[in-house]
Hints:
The chain has 311 residues and is an alpha+beta fold.
Amino acid sequence: MATITAQHVKELREQTGAGMMDCKAALNETKGDMEAAVDWLRAKGLAKAAKKAGRVAADGLIGVALKDKTGAVVEVNSETDFVARNDVFQATVREIAELALKAKGDVEKLSQAKVPSAKKSVADHLQELVGKIGENLTLRRTAMLSVPDGVVASYMHNSVAPDLGKIGVLVAVESTGDKAKLTEIGRQVAMHIAATNPLALTDKEIDPAVVARERAVFADQARQQGKGKPENVIEKMVEGRLQKFFKESVLLKQIFVIDGESTVEQAVKNAEKAAGAPIKITGFVRYALGEGIEKQTSDFAAEVAAAAAGN
């Protein structure tokens, strides 16, 4: 049997918001499986939310670049937020984002691209900056969107400089309509995505494994709440909850945060008149700085005591 530590209980509490004893019980029931423990708590209505991604723990910057009908986004990490305010680091991330327009989402290709100001590869330039800045710097990821006709719009949340910040979003808006109007609705949708973090553009694009997991949790909940009810009734309860999940998780079905009434799909449709042509959102990318990276924690007081003792 797996050993359940206080740290395991703490991590589960941070992910779910459930009580300490409930978290301990969930971990015991699931033999220490964190994901299964989250589902166990959700099924019993004890978890506030399931958070698959790790805590946002890395520093650095998200950068975006737009050109013609293409947009690119990059994440370059540093060890502290102090470096993110460094002019040299900001200029480097901006150059890397521009290079990402041609890398087409290939991080290895981007790492080998030549930085114009340094006349060396991104990888070599970052390594050189490590010595100058004094922190480890890494190119973590990149993505690109393009449209045959229309625009790629962007939005940067918690911006520290133009096109640099903590959450970067790209939205592909396909249309033959007025570019300024397309950029306007695209930016609004990007702002919505930054706020709501949808899982996918449509129902069909959500990972089947995620849907299966949600269905299993909903079925467990329905059987506990509907004891004695026929299986066909239970199934209807599950389908109802699954549809609610889609409305909350699928971009086009979400309530548009800009007006609080329309769905995103309806808002885009409403923008067609001003644009003068049909509009289709064909894709989006949302990068939040450090998402999914586990940050090492340390006992600062212990470190100071050790330093004082000469250890």
